[in-house]
Give the backbone structure.
Amino acid sequence: MRKRILRWTIGIGGSAAFVALFVWAGYRMYGPGDIGERVERFQRRWAPFYKGIGDGTALNYWTFVGRGLILTLEAAVISILLSLFFGTLLALLRLTRNPRLRFPAPTVVRYALSAPATTLIQTIRSAPLFLLILYTFIAAPKLGLQLTALRAGIFALTLYTSCVLAEIIRAGILSLDRGQFEAADAIGLSYVKKLRFVVLPQAMRRMVPSMVSQLVTLIKDTSLLSIITVTELYRRLYIIQQQAFNPIETFIVAGVIYFVINFALSTFARRLEVGPSRVGGASAAAVQGLGVEDQTLVVTEAAAGRGRTSSHSRTDP
Amino acid sequence: MIGEVLTENLPFLLEGYRNTLYLVAVAFGGSLVLGTFVAVLRIAPVPMLPRLARVEVEVFRNTPLLLQMSFAYLGLGSLGIRLRPFTAAAIVLTLYTGAYVTETVRSGIASIGPRQIEAARSIGMTFPKTMRLVVLPQALRTVIPPLGNLMIAMVKNSAIAASIAFPELLYQTQILDSRTFATFEVYNGAIFAFLTITLPLSFAVSRLEKKLRIAR
């Protein structure tokens, strides 16, 4: 009984402190002044979201923002699709050296193919995406390429994501049972057929959850394109905020938009993950016993190291 | 490839390099502490707090880091809470990576099995004691490699602090580029500088991974 009281005190006290922090922040945000002034300020700063800016006739607020959202999603989807293609290509190039795939070429050729791919993957993956975006944008004209900011941005996103996906795909391929490769060779499939009918279909299926979480990462990362003047979601909200003088409110709204999209996507990814890569029932039960509602989340390969793939398959934040 | 611009401005770039390292050191330390604490909160046998912890994690994981940076620097600044760029960047990186640390530590906790916890509880250990003496020492050990990966990711993410004018490596690079127009030289140098941080880290992580795998 005493214990239960203690628990409830901690729980309610902690939550109350949390809520109080927000109430206090909200109260301060619209200060100084008496309550009437605060309410008036509150209304004025939230008005742009339903009334628009100025007299509200120039351009509908949400049309303006909506176009940015479409651009954001477009950039993310184009990049992920391109990266899927180039990522697979890079992974296969890197794997030419691997004896398990038996790439039909002399050793020298296999190394000549895999070494540059490996270098590229490691270099790009180790550099900050933000740097790559700026670099592409600034360097492209100096190379005589007339790229729009959006294209430069998509190029950088694709370059980076391809290299990240290449490692995921490589790990996915290597996670397949050795017998699969041997069986494919035994029935005399050519290299291409082996990949097309045996290796890639299985590997890709295992990688669907990582793909989706990579898409979430990409949607977040497209906000970096705002720095190179692409008028995607974040940049549009940023511009509006400068005219409406409501940075906090705008950033909150921006956060909500990104959150809704990404949370939906990552919940979806998590649901996909429950299938084959699930950690044994014992640990799921352990978490349940500890009172965690969402046991499907207990999955990453880190758990007990039972995962089949290496660290590379994890999508970085 | 290494030309005059780089050699002449080396101290300028090294200052950025040092700032990057400093930012990552502070923020990663912070995110380890915060992330572990929130991970424990998520399974604490008290009402409501686990849910709040979950909300915190999901919010920081699902919104762009750039947005969080702007929020802390410009947004709070507009309220009169003027943080220095370093403080804002360190807080935001701590919270952002902390959310990922929480999920990682949680998977580590899940991996050690229910018997340990049941045993600890049945000999009369309190929940905090169970966590501190039984669960966390084991859980943290299993998640060292993924935590290393988070650190690598943080080194890369720290470049976003350039957007709020914290003079870290990328910011210094941008300035140097706009001063000298030696774009390729300067940016290649910056990529190389980032590689000198991230490559040894990822090498260490894969070594650790192999070691831990054999030990198991």
Notes: Chain B is about 80% helix and 0% strand.
